[in-house]
Amino acid sequence: MRVSLKREPAPAPALPDFRELFEAQFSYVWHALKRLGVAERDLEDLTQQVFMQVHGQLPKFVSTRPLRPWLFSFAYHAASNYRALSRHRVELSIVAPEPPDTRPSADEQLITRQELELAELALSRVALDRRAVLLLHEVEGHSMPEIAESLSIPLRGRSTTIAFTLQIRIRLRSTAYL
What we know:
The chain is mostly helical. It has helices spanning 18-35, 43-57, 67-84, 106-124, 128-139, 144-150, 155-174. The chain contains seven helices and no strands.
């Protein structure tokens, strides 16, 4: 009797269920698109488009990799395409005044809102590719190698993009934007 020493290949990890993925990550993708500069009126439609692309690419997802940077790459490309459309290049934003807040901590809420608006303004002035790196690293807490792989930053461009993003991060932190 002969005994084979060959190992059976381990079964591939199961892909996430799309419905569960959609329900659990819809808010994440929506907020990522918002931070990448998609207008409020277009967020729901663009989020749906991102998930249509995710659905088509789900069989290619490597379940040993983190899910959120993979989803962010779809949001990044959708936001990039969205911003490239001529109808989105110039947008005048007319914001109607909000009714006064009667809650006891209105002053604190106002300060927080102003800080967020200031941070959004600062982010809006950063190039989209560098903004994506900054958001994934600072807000989402992903490592630079994960970000470079997820956004397909070429080796020669990684150090420049990451170094510039780190400089932006230092400037934003020194002025209390982040």
